[in-house]
Design brief:
The chain is mainly alpha-helical. It is built from 11 helices and no strands.
C-alpha cells in the first residue's frame, strides 16, 4: 500500500508532513541517530569510503537515489561521520607516536585536530560552499531548488576522507622510515609533496563531483580551476625545496607546547 498524506483543502501537505521536510527536523533526526549505533549502516559507510578512492561517482549516484526515495540530498545516517571520526582519532594518535609525543601532548593534539581542524574548519568550508553555490551557481534561483547545508557538509566529508587517509595515515609510514620525508633531502620532500598533491587533488575533484551531481547547478567546472594553482605550487615546492610534511610536523609540535 502506498503511503498516504493529509492534504489541506488547497491540496498542500498538512503541517505535520511539512515539518518532516524542514531542515531543523532533518538535523534533529540525524543527531538523534548518533546515539543509536544499531540503527547505523556501517557496512554501507565503509563501501562509500572504498569507492571514494576508486570510483567517487558511484557514491554520488547513491545521493541521487536518496533524493528520489527520501526527498533529501544529504545523508540521514551518521555512520560515515562516526567512521571518519574513528579514522581521525587513530591517525592522530599515530602522529603522536611518530613525533615522540607524550600522552598529554598526544591528547592535546587530538583535541586540536578534532575540534579545530575537523569540526571547525569543516563547518567553515561547508558553510562557505553552501553560500557560494546557492548565490552564484543556481541555474534558476528559487525556493524549490537550493543546496542543502547538510549536503554541503557531506561533500566536504567525502572529499576530506581520502585526504585524511593519505596525509594522516599513509604518510606516517614515510615520515621517519622508508623514504624519511621529514628531512631536507630531495627524495624526501619530493615524495612528501607528491602525497600532498594527490591528497588535495582528491579533495578538489570529489568536491567538484559533489556539486556537479546536482542538476540545478550551473558552471560547476569553476570548482576545478584551483587545480592550476595546485600544480603551480607543487612545481615551486619541489624546485625550491619546500617540505610541506616537515612544516606539518613542526606545526603539530608547536601546537602542543
Amino acid at each position: 500500500m502506498l503511503p498516504t498524506t493529509s492534504p489541506n483543502s488547497n491540496g498542500a501537505l498538512g503541517s505535520s508532513d511539512t515539518a518532516r521536510h524542514t531542515a531543523g527536523f532533518k538535523r534533529y533526526k540525524y543527531l538523534r541517530r548518533l546515539l543509536h549505533f544499531r540503527q547505523m549502516d556501517f557496512d554501507f559507510a565503509m563501501w562509500q569510503m572504498l569507492y571514494l578512492f576508486t570510483s567517487p561517482q558511484r557514491v554520488y549516484r547513491n545521493f541521487h537515489y536518496r533524493k528520489q526515495t527520501k526527498d533529501q540530498w544529504a545523508r540521514d545516517d551518521p555512520a560515515f561521520l562516526v567512521l571518519l571520526g574513528i579514522w581521525l582519532c587513530v591517525s592522530t594518535v599515530g602522529f603522536g607516536l611518530v613525533l615522540d609525543m607524550g600522552v598529554v601532548e598526544t591528547l592535546k593534539l587530538l583535541l586540536w585536530v578534532v575540534v579545530v581542524d575537523c569540526i571547525g574548519v569543516g563547518l567553515l568550508i561547508s558553510t562557505l560552499m553552501w553560500v557560494i553555490s546557492n548565490k552564484y551557481l543556481l541555474k534558476h534561483p528559487s525556493r524549490n531548488f537550493d543546496v542543502e547545508w547538510g549536503y554541503a557538509f557531506d561533500v566536504h566529508l567525502n572529499a576530506f576522507y581520502p585526504l585524511l587517509v593519505i596525509l594522516h595515515f599513509l604518510q606516517l609510514f614515510f615520515i621517519n622510515h622508508v623514504v624519511v620525508i621529514n628531512s631536507d633531502w630531495f627524495v624526501g620532500y619530493f615524495v612528501g609533496n607528491t602525497m600532498w598533491l594527490i591528497a588535495i587533488s582528491y579533495y578538489l575533484y570529489i568536491t567538484f563531483l559533489g556539486y556537479n551531481a546536482l542538476p540545478f547547478l550551473k558552471n560547476t567546472v569553476v570548482l576545478l580551476y584551483p587545480f592550476a594553482l595546485l600544480a603551480l605550487v607543487y612545481v615551486l615546492s619541489v624546485s625550491l625545496g619546500w617540505n610541506f610534511t616537515q612544516g606539518l610536523c613542526w606545526f603539530y609540535k608547536y601546537r602542543v607546547q
